[in-house]
């Protein structure tokens, strides 16, 4: 039986253990930008050689399922890049890895999140 705390090679990434932080949406973003509390949150949970999966990051404005989520994927701006860099740097400072969870809320999306964009289905 494999020990939960034994190393694991995942593609080109070497994890020091098999405990992974699953995506947990914290709603710590304003106008799609991760706030300092989000960098602190992930930094606190990072371990040497550990893996974290970020909260849901919508791939399209129509895919936002609720307010205060961090966006990163449909309109990269310098402001978004800098905000996410703080999150990634906090994880890397502890020797951890972070993957971005790409997301679309699908039919659970709500028009109030679309900011004058029509629902497609």
Automatic annotation (TrEMBL):
Pfam families recorded: Oxidored_FMN (PF00724)
Name of this chain's protein: NADH:flavin oxidoreductase/NADH oxidase N-terminal domain-containing protein
Lineage of origin: Eukaryota, Viridiplantae, Streptophyta, Embryophyta, Tracheophyta
Residue ranges occupied by any NADH:flavin oxidoreductase/NADH oxidase N-terminal domain in the UniProt entry: 3-110
One Gene Ontology term of the molecular function aspect: oxidoreductase activity
Family: Belongs to the NADH:flavin oxidoreductase/NADH oxidase family.
Keyword Acetylation: no
Keywords: Flavoprotein, FMN, NADP
UniProt keyword Heme present: no
InterPro entries xref list: Aldolase_TIM, OxRdtase_FMN_N, Oye-like
Cofactor(s) this protein cannot do without: FMN
């Amino acid at each position: 039986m494999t020990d939960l705390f034994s190393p694991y090679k995942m593609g080109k990434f070497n994890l020091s253990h098999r405990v992974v932080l699953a995506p947990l949406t914290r709603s710590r973003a304003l106008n799609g930008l991760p706030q300092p509390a989000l960098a602190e949150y992930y930094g606190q949970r990072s371990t040497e050689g550990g893996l974290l999966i970020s909260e849901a990051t919508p791939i399209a404005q129509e895919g936002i399922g609720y307010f205060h989520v961090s966006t990163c994927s449909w309109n990269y701006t310098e402001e978004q890049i800098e905000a996410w860099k703080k999150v990634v740097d906090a994880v890397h400072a502890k020797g951890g890895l972070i993957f971005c969870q790409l997301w679309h809320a699908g039919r659970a999306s709500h028009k109030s999140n679309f900011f004058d964009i029509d629902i497609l289905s």
